[in-house]
Amino acid sequence: MENQDEVSTGEKCRNIRTGSSPDDIAQAFLDNLYYAQGRIPVLATRNDLYMALAYTVRDRLAARWVAQMQQFRRAELKKSIKVVCYLSAEFLPGPHLGNNLLNLGIYDETRQAMEQLGYNLEELIDQETEPGLGNGGLGRLASCFMDSLSTIVVPAFGYGIRYEFGIFDQEIRDGWQVEITDKWLKLGNPWEMPLPELCQEVKLGGHTEHYQDGQGRSRVRWIPAGVVEGIPYDTPILGYGGNICNTLRLWKAEAVESFDFQDFNVGNYYAAVEEKVKSETITKVLYPNDEPEIGKMLRLIQEYFFVSCSLQDMIRIGKMLGNSPECFDQRYVAQLNDTHPSIAVAELMRLLVDEHDVAWEKAWEITQNTFGYTNHTLLPEALEKWPVELFGQILPRHLEIVYEINRRFLDQVRLAFPGDEEQAARLSLIDESGCRYVRMAHLACVGCHAVNGVAKLHSELLKSEVLRDFHEMFPEKFHNVTNGVTPRRWMALSNPRLAALISGVIGDGWITQLDELRKLEPFADDPAFQEKWRRVKRENKNDLATLILNRTGVAVDPDSLFDIQVKRLHEYKRQHLNVLHIITLYARLKRYPASDCVPRTFVFGGKAAPGYAMAKLIIKLINSVAGVVNTDPDIRGRLNVAFLPDFNVKTGQQVYPAADLSEQISLAGEEASGTGNMKFSMNGALTIGTLDGANVEIREEVGAENFFLFGLKVDEVEELKARGYDPRKYYDSNPALREAIDLIRSGHFSGGNAQLFAPLVDLLMQRDNYMLFADYQPYIDCQDRVSAAFRDQQNWTRMSILNVARMGKFSSDRAVREYCDMIWKVQPV
Length: 829
Ligand code: AZC
Prior knowledge:
Keywords: Carbohydrate metabolism, Glycogen metabolism, Glycosyltransferase, Pyridoxal phosphate, Transferase. By secondary structure, the chain is α/β, with parallel strands linked by helices. It has three domains: 1-80 and 100-128, no CATH class; 81-95 and 130-381 and 440-483 and 817-824, Glycogen Phosphorylase B (Rossmann fold), CATH 3.40.50; 487-713 and 774-810, Glycogen Phosphorylase B (Rossmann fold, 3-Layer(aba) Sandwich). Helices cover 50% and strands 14% of the residues. The strands form five sheets. Strands 1, 2, 5, 6, 9, 10, 11, 12, 16 and 17 form a ten-stranded mixed β-sheet that branches. Strands 20-19-18-21-22-23 form a six-stranded parallel β-sheet, with helices on both faces. α27 links the parallel β22 and β23 (708-709). α2 (22-35) packs across α5. The chain is globular. 50% of the residues are buried. Bound molecules: N-(acetylcarbamoyl)-beta-D-glucopyranosylamine (AZC). N-(acetylcarbamoyl)-beta-D-glucopyranosylamine (AZC) binds at residues 135-138, 141, 289, 376-377, 454, 483, 671-675, 693.
């Protein structure tokens, strides 16, 4: 009897931690509410309820997570697996709760459980503050890759920084962007687990000492000026279907001694905690991109800090499993997500040579085998370089190592290109023109066995422009891996209506084999299916209309064409070209009030770097135009403009499913890939775009007839620049363009203030670096074709279905498989 009781108690406990029926989940939820949050339902806030549910879901991840750790050990002992380490200064995972419910396969059960208890699951999901630990595309890509690594069963660690404050929250006041500190940790983070025992020490500053060791070999000792500690915080990343659960390991900086008793004893209380404050500053805040990096000592320290913690952690794990540092490259591959972690090349050399007594040549072989480097931008101003002096102050030993790598490398260069000192100067890791800099992209190209761009066009441009000399030197290192996005978050989770419609006709295999969407093609002309497709889009638009109303006060018509541009604000992305189109439509309607136009709702979203004045002025322009257009009685019911504040992963999930038209209108040759373009298309939006980044491949896949193409091509841009581009000519010869510009310039959208937008207008008239004027008329013409096409709803729906059906290539599962085959040489287990 007693035994029986024990069994059933055990059962009960097990169900509380693992059961997946609605009853089990409801029971577990109440248990967590009581024991983890210290509340009962009548006392609970919405956050208490969210936390209790998050713990309930986390419990259900635990078994898989632990199993994964054990698996590592077993396979490692057999020395059969290589672990992928994705080193990235940014991750944008988005809210975890909904995604984990989806991947665990307990979404419906949990909804029922919450209903039983009188709660609304969507409201609890909405309570989560997302970890905004990235700026945009690059950080989000890292998170899509983590999802895919787990889903296709590749053991992996994501290594990064646990910023206390992530990307700022954006508010719009009087049309201007206002930045608010992102306090994502304020209400607690139920998804992370701190592991203080696994902390790592990181040295900073000081000097080096060269000496002879017992065997007469010359060695180097780094005597740092200070040491900080990195504490890992682990977040489980479960794959779809729960196959494996990888780890996102983010480092937080702390003082080694958080309290100096000597200081305290002499009564200097503040000095006693100063060390702690200084150390913790390192992981306080994410740097917004698009700001000049030079001189940002703290940024270099951040980069070094997380890289050093991560590499030491990898060596520690290897040691624990009985692997010597000499076989590091057989156990690991590490991908550098842009140059931000590229100091890893010098740090691994230092760890191997100075701390683990590996010979330089062997260490160099290990280092090159280990690392791959992904480039994400062609913008020259975004390529990181550090003044040699600053670099040496913080990382004196690394500067010596960089010099030694460079010395050996330039010997190689001179052998390959005898007598060509200019080539050597261009390739050198040190920029010697003027003030001396360490070029981080060069360090990455030399120290990695593979270099890749993120779309076909981008990879070609890397080879022919930005990294031309390196391509000449090491052609075999260069690859392309076109980006992808996870269909779990970006379709199944964010667009459940569409997911259900699709799965209803072709099954749900597409969620992990996105190519299966092809099976939708036969339905593209089926009127009944088309009708359902339109209904889904209409309901999604309704939801977005509600969100827009709540967030901006602008009432929009869900039957209008939803024309959406959401992405970081940047001149090269040309949100202001979109604005010129809006003004052109506005001017047409004012002139011919009775003309028949397709009603449109223009939606914008995106953050501008706090120091990027022009991007912030473009936000103000969008809102100013919105203010006029939305309130003009002649325009009512035809055009609406809304700027959705604080665009992030969570908002994105509500935006992409509701779009009819996706704006991908960067000047050709500027956008490395884009991933928003993929998210829109997967959700049935048609694209208006230039031949830039991954647009090229999207168009190839969906068919030219299902894509609205306009604008200069890369070679035409170059040719025009070479000939001498003069924006004035376009202004003088195009009345519609002139009218749009003059309306802005006259103060029409700024209450008569003609000065407000003068910096923007002047820049366009004088330089127009991103050639808006050259692309203006082709863009307007193309938009007119869009409007005409939208009138034919049957054909539009057909195109929309075909877009989705042909998006298989843009799954991040495909991208990650290509990294596995081409770059990492690992097999899914
Ligand atoms: C972006 C690129 O601009 C974008 O085209 C690409 O799709 C994305 O990376 C992923 O590869 N770059 C960044 O987001 N860069 C930074 C520093 O945030």
